[in-house]
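Hey team,

Filing this mostly as a record. A colleague (T.K.) asked me to run one chain through the structure pipeline before their review meeting, and I want the input and output archived in the tracker in case anyone asks later how it was produced. No errors, nothing strange. Just documentation.

Input sequence:
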Amino acid sequence: MGATTIYIGATPEYGKASFLERLEREIGRTKARYPQATYIGIADGAASNWQFLNRHTTQQVLDFYHASGYLGAVAVALYPKDLRSLIGFGLFAFGTHHFARNFYR
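Output structure:
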């Protein structure tokens, strides 16, 4: 069986409670259809996201955008004024948006 990805989104005016209800229903249908699957949640660092994902997934992962921001902050802490080292750290390969924000403070 191949991997399945389901994307659900809602505009802010519908509210988070409504979105979470829809998501809960979708998770229930998916788990009924694929009971042996591994469920992985991907989110930003908001505590409410992790609380929700802990109830429904076996693994949780910080999304790439936010992870690269943390990595950018670490790189700047390690090499505060050394642009060459930051480039060597790979910040121009990923997380460039975070690099610029952290380096030029």
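Quick notes for T.K.: The mean pLDDT is 77. Residues 64-103 form one domain.
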